[in-house]
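Anyone have tokens for DNA ligase (ATP)? Sequence:
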Amino acid sequence: MTKPSKPKPLLQDADKPVRSRPRKPRNLAQPNLPLDPMPDRVDPCLALLKPKPPKGPQWALEVKWDGYRLAVHIDPSGVHILTRGGHNWTDRFPAIAAEARRLPVATAVLDGEAGVFDEHGRSDFGRLQQSLGGRGGKRMSREAVLMAFDLLYFDGRDIRQTELTSRRHLLEGLVPAGGEEAIRLSEEIDADGDVLLRIACEHGLEGIIAKDRNSTYRSGRGGEWLKIKCIQSDGFAIVGYEKSTAAFGGIARLLLAARKGDELVYVGGVGTGFNERSAAELREQMDKLIIGKPSVDTGRKRNAVFIRPELVAEIEYRAWTHDGKLRHAAFKGLREVQDEATVYEME
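Reply: yep, here.
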């Protein structure tokens, strides 16, 4: 039987403390590992509208949130929150900015949607606008929550050319599921697309988003992301209003227009969705834009006041009539210029 070998003594005197070898000075000719520069701004990947959810395991499904698209940039100099149009709104979302500073990462760019939730857990665009002081307001929204759904830059690496599955894996490590903080993970939902859409609609949500798991992050509306809505919701230019002595703010109906090529065309009106406060604020802004003649042909209108088409209203609607007018429309709020207030383009 062989005796167990004795452990070899450390190669130093027993009465001296253990120390590592002294560091050699770095060879200046040997380069550091290069890091990718953090982008100052990223044009967001936009979802293409589809009537039905796609089929197949390549598609990841999420809830569609109703709010403002934001990019949260985190670096050693601090946190910067940019709108879809590239405007710095860090000061307007203090809770999101504070939570971003607490994330366990040195550098990152998160993509997500800021929203304010109602008592049923649904994001509500109108509540978000009210929390910010209305269109053109300067109020801070402490209630807003960022639902983070993508990670574009992480610890010195630009990962936009990495497939969605890997980007999501890193995001889930950074923003765990099930949190109640000001930055939360927009979770993937393992379900059939048709079933998920039906459930989303039954719960009064705006719709769902489908994303190609193998896709890289590409700015614009390239089809890698798809949106399927329960109720249509788009931006329309306000070209005037009809007066009323009984309605909130004296507004009987807003007169709306969409883009068709290089022109605006009249698409009908909306007379619901206002409350006393929103109607008063809207009337105040519209009366600063009054013009003598309509900018589009609205047909004959009684008690109509026409304005320059500078305000963009977010409108919910169920369908279109055969002559190109909105059906069952409701006013949701005014879109901010900083949020790329685009006007709906007709085919």
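Residues 116 and 127 are 6 Å apart (CA to CA).
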